Amino acid sequence: MNSKLFQNIEYPKIAPVPEGIHRPFWSVMIPTYNCANYLAQTLKSVLAQDPGPEHMQIEVVDDYSTKDDPEAVVREIGKGRVSFYRNPQNVGAIRNFNTCVQRSLGRFVHILHGDDYIAPDFYVSYAQLLESHPDATLIISPSISIDENNQHLSVASPFPNIDGIITDFPKIQALRNEIHTPTVVIPRKVYEQIGGYYQPLSHTADWEMFFRSGLHGKAVTLDRQVAYYRLHSGSDTNRLALSGKNIWEAKHTVDICMQQLPEKMRSEISNNRYSHIAGLAHYFYSELAKKKMWKSSLILAGWNLKLSPNKSTFKSYLKALARYVLYGVLNFDTQLLKFRKDMSSAS
Q1: CATH superfamily ID and name for 21-232
Q2: Which residue of 60, 137, 313, 342 shows the fewest CB atoms closer than 10 Å?
Q3: Mean pLDDT computed over every residue of the chain
Q4: Using CB atoms within 10 A of its CB, is residue 132 exposed (0-12), middle (13-18) or buried (19+)?
Q5: pTM for this one?
Q6: pLDDT tens string 12-50
């Protein structure tokens, strides 16, 4: 807790809702950025279970979209029930999340990305879970991952739990993130107490926020899937992997989380704290090698070796280095342009 790393962290302050303003039970805050083609499905999934404005705030918070018109979708689908706010300039996803939280009025905040959607019993199911655990500081559920065409890709496994209370949540969440954002509900008072999303993290701020929320009190989960999380082939993860920034940021997030754990808990997982991230580095090293992205593959192999130094990772690094020396100097620029073009056409 006394490390320089943790002492230097400044979380954005979330101001309480002013006195005299009506507080609904739910705030459904929908951040968007150039995803209006999915927004209609998102809004319909919420409006299908709308308990009315007395009980639910619904607002789209757009981060200055440049390729589409989310406000037109809100007018068409929301028909006056859904409010719309547009940032005066693009601020990035994490700052936009904080804008969503700050603009929320309800007791429980659900940030639902403008390209995800929820099952018809989402809010009823979460309300029932909250009746059993009114002191919960993080409420989640497993999720179904889908592609751009709504095809099911995978189903998340539920966290180990006893009567909905996630066992060993801080130790699990400190080292990896298996939670998908559309499943997450956090009481607004928790944001007010612990602060908003940590803005220097561009890729893992949600991971760190979920950890901090659960550590602050009690994390609970449903045992079934009631939310749909959309995976894009041209996602930020793929782009960040080119430079290895995805692994750097994941390591940094683990370090931040580890420093906030109680000393006894931290000592129990310290030796293997980078195992999951090393596995991710190995995965991206292999995938980039298949695409003949030699320089990026070498970077990820280097991260794999750094996070999990052993004969196998050293051998992989030497293999990646040899490929880069033999092929990368001549072919990297061409392959990088091709990969970026592929990612652009897929997004």
Answers
A1: Spore Coat Polysaccharide Biosynthesis Protein SpsA; Chain A (3.90.550.10)
A2: 342
A3: 93
A4: exposed
A5: 0.91
A6: 999 999 999 999 999 999 999 999 999 999 999 999 999
DSSP 115: T
pLDDT the model gives residue 240? 85
* 343 φ/ψ angles, rounded to the nearest 5 degrees: -65, -40
Q: How far apart are CA 89 and CA 210, in angstroms?
A: 27
Cα distance between the two ends of the chain: 41
Structure tokens at 122: 């989402």
Burial of 91 (C-beta count, 10 Å sphere; 0-12/13-18/19+): middle
Which residues in the chain belong to E strands, given as ranges? 26-32, 56-62, 83-86, 108-111, 117-118, 138-140, 144-146, 152-155, 161-162, 165-166, 185-187, 219-221, 227-230
Question: Are 327 and 281 a contacting pair, CB within 8 Å?
Answer: no
Pull the structure tokens for residue 205. 């701020």
* Cβ-based burial of 64 (10 A; exposed 0-12, middle 13-18, buried ≥19): middle
What's the rounded Cα separation, in Å, for the pair 52 and 57? 8
Q: What is the residue type of 290?
A: K
The torsion of the CA quartet 153, 208, 29, 54, rounded to 10 degrees, works out to 110
Residue type, 18: P
Closest to 62 in 3D by CA, of 52, 50, 53, 72: 72
Whether residue 326 contacts residue 320, with contact meaning beta carbons closer than 8 Å, is answered with no
**Distance between CA atoms of 106 and 23, rounded to whole angstroms?**
5
pLDDT in tens, 166-189: 999 999 999 999 999 999 999 999
Nearest Cα to Cα of residue 270 among 255, 284, 280, 283: 255
DSSP structural state of residue 215: H
For CATH 3.90.550.10, list the domain ranges present in the chain. 21-232
174 — phi, psi (to 5°)?
A: -65, -25
CA 140 to chain centre: 13
> Could you read off the pLDDT of 60-92 as tens digits, one per residue?
999 999 999 999 999 999 999 999 999 999 999
